[in-house]
């Protein structure tokens, strides 16, 4: 895949990512690395430690070695690419960086990760100031839970993005009724008609949308068509409850919506007929479906949706496949 940035950022703070340790953060906090917004900068804003930066900045190193930050991914998965962004760091950026990754089940402390099987996924690479560097991962097969960003020898990095495919922990899915459309469970948007204002991936995010920007919103249509998004479920299952949430969309909610399922055999069937929606409302519908692998959401004619939830159990084969995929020993 060339444009790996179309995949979700497994490390972003809004999906649960956290910088759990760093060698140094004298000038700017390590937590800024995972902020969801674009790096901001206001010149001549000085605090007691110097110019304020929306990023991670270490002291000038006077000893051998290099600085590093240890990140727990919000969502474990297969990493396809890394973005190391030195935005606004022009005279204080590191000349080189590398990225390592490891798999560690459970909730290990930083010291416990020292003995983990770390794999270099981005070799030591040159950096420029005030630049977003896209770097392809050298290992897209293994499942990783943590990454370590190394910068040589010191300086500032505004953001780290870790793009990849979610591989969920089966312990939190098997034997339960789960949200089959949740990004954190492995669901993803395959395609959509329009993403003018915001991405349809937002519909699959955890929690409630706080603003319109945290959902999916399309441009105004001027033809006779309608907008749509196709979602691959976390794994095949049967849908028992659908939730279509238009919260915060007070003047741009769709008038109606429909859900069409694709079964594991490739058959298509309407599971929610074209149904009227209200603005700024969580709509819930009880359903009874066959085994479903994908769902197409049609909104008529346009507008936005804050969240899409599709609740139900996994099929026995899906549970078995998830358990197999979580096993780190099967990957090179």
TrEMBL record:
One of its GO terms (biological process) is purine nucleobase metabolic process. Pathway: Nitrogen metabolism; (S)-allantoin degradation; (S)-ureidoglycolate from allantoate (aminidohydrolase route): step 1/1. GO terms for molecular function: allantoicase activity. Pfam families: Allantoicase. It catalyses: allantoate + H2O = (S)-ureidoglycolate + urea. Its EC number is 3.5.3.4. PANTHER family: ALLANTOICASE (PTHR12045), INACTIVE ALLANTOICASE-RELATED (PTHR12045:SF3). Belongs to the allantoicase family. This is Probable allantoicase. It comes from Actinomadura citrea. The lineage of its organism: Bacteria, Bacillati, Actinomycetota, Actinomycetes, Streptosporangiales. The gene is alc.
């Amino acid at each position: 895949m060339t444009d790996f940035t179309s995949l979700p950022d497994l490390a972003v703070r809004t999906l649960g990512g956290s910088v759990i340790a760093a060698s140094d953060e004298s000038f700017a906090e390590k937590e800024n690395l995972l902020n969801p917004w674009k790096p901001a900068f206001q010149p001549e804003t000085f605090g007691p430690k110097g110019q304020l930066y929306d990023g991670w900045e270490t002291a000038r190193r006077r000893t051998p070695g290099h600085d590093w930050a240890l990140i727990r991914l919000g969502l474990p998965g297969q990493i396809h690419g890394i973005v190391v962004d030195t935005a606004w760091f022009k005279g204080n950026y590191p000349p080189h960086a590398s990225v390592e990754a490891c798999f560690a089940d459970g909730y290990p402390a930083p010291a416990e990760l020292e003995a983990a099987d770390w794999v270099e996924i981005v070799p030591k690479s040159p950096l420029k100031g005030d630049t977003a560097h896209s770097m392809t991962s050298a290992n897209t097969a293994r499942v990783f839970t943590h990454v370590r960003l190394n910068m040589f020898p010191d300086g500032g990095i505004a953001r780290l993005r870790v793009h990849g495919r979610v591989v969920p922990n089966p312990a939190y899915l098997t034997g339960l009724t789960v949200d089959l459309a949740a990004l954190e469970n492995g669901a993803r948007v395959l395609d959509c008609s329009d993403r003018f204002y915001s991405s349809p991936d937002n519909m699959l995010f955890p929690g409630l949308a706080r603003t319109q920007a945290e959902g999916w919103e399309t441009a105004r249509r001027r033809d006779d068509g309608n907008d749509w998004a196709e979602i691959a479920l976390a794994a095949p299952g049967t849908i028992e409850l659908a939730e279509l949430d238009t919260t915060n969309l007070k003047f741009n909610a769709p008038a109606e919506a429909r859900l069409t399922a694709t079964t594991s055999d490739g058959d298509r069937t309407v599971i929610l007929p074209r149904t009227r929606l209200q603005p700024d409302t969580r709509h819930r519908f009880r359903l009874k479906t066959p085994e479903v692998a994908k769902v197409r959401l049609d909104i008529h004619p346009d507008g936005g949706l804050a969240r899409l939830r599709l609740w139900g159990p996994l099929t026995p084969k899906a549970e078995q496949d998830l358990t197999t995929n979580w096993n780190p020993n099967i990957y090179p």
